[in-house]
Amino acid sequence: MQGEVGEDLLSLRLSVGSAYHFEPTKKRKRIDEPNDKNIMVLLQARDRMIRFGCNRHGMGDDKGFQLVRLLLLCATAVDRNDLSSSTDLLRQLYRNVSLSGNPIQRVTAHFIDGLMARFITKNSSFYSSIMADPSPADVFSAFTSFFLASPYYQFAHFTANQAIFEAFEEDEHWNGGCLHVIDFDVSYGLQWPSLIQSLSEKATNQKPISLLITGFGKNMEELSDTEKRLSSFASGFRNLFFEFEGRLRGEKGQEEIQVKKNATVAVNLVFYLHTLKNYSDIYATLMQINTLNPSVVTLVEKEGSRGNHSGFMSRFMESLQYFAAMFDSLDDCLPARNKERLRIEKNHLGREIRNAVAVKDEEEKGCRYEGLETWKTAMERYRFEGVRMSSRSVSQAKLLLKIKSHCSAMDDHGNGTGFRIFERDEGKALSLGWQDTHLITATAWRRSS
């Protein structure tokens, strides 16, 4: 499906763009807000879509082009503050999508919700009914389900961990078996069990290994849970001494990180930099990291050109193409009616789509998705140089796809019609892609000499 949708999007950039003139100066000044009657009609259409989606087929696979065209027309109308056209197009769209239909219907349903929230604005009492965040338990459940079902997060974690492990091995002649990882967004800590296991397999009675993880998180409860999970996991391995230091993101003194003396220092930036509000914060972070004198900095980010510098329609179409690939890839991982898949799409991917589309002040949610070249320029500006990804990293990534690719054909080189591994930037970057769309890219960096 993604190949066809990708071609559709390319042609629609011209056809829809020329018809609706995407220049910012063509926007109408909103003088009024959607009235409650129109909003109620739309909410009823949305409710019917949610309740009866399993029994509705709407537009079939061969109608994907028409569905995407309607969605882009609707996005244009919402962006231009055209209340009449927006109401009509939103109603049409809700009638033709399904949360349990084919991938393009499913992803479109979440984009419609984002447009609906942007249309009625935060001032409406109905806004929260669409944009309400799932509970922390539901967010964690969706994240872990996605982690287990798809190679997406595992590729990011395993590739970063391999670079950290290799940096630790290179420093063995002076680090005394000590590794200090500074994780700027430790989240639930799911990245670290594989590194703990790799280190434990290397450790011996004569040469034990000490691992300290300084992890920054959103709240103390999450950090406490992460510490318990990782400490419990690490306790099952001999000759490995594990410590976890939880720190709150944004707390006073975050810039004062004490590195462990005579240890290999690794800084982990997996899905972190894009969350920062502006380039000043990004550059300040990179300057701080440089002062830590790390042996390696691992950087993994989602691919895209959806930074705050571009206009809404440009970001919208980039996001649609990206998430169409994401939803298509889930079709390879889980059955259409699978409850875990619905949970992932609603509470993880759908939540991200709604926030990206609905929030008008883009800096409020971060959402700074950039391509490899942008991050490369930023790293090099602050005296980091790229490290070539090892053959072990490449082989590990391709092995992961062989294990995780359920339906897609896969050849001996790790290439296929579904998930693929791309070696880029003369071997200094590894990207996970779905067909020809790059999803995430992993790189490793060290201070320039």
From TrEMBL:
Keyword Transport in annotation: no
Keywords: Transcription, Transcription regulation
Protein name: Scarecrow-like protein 23-like transcript variant X1
Motif residue range(s): VHIID: 179-183
Family of the protein in this entry: Belongs to the GRAS family.
Stored InterPro entries: TF_GRAS
Region (SAW): 358-446
PROSITE patterns: GRAS
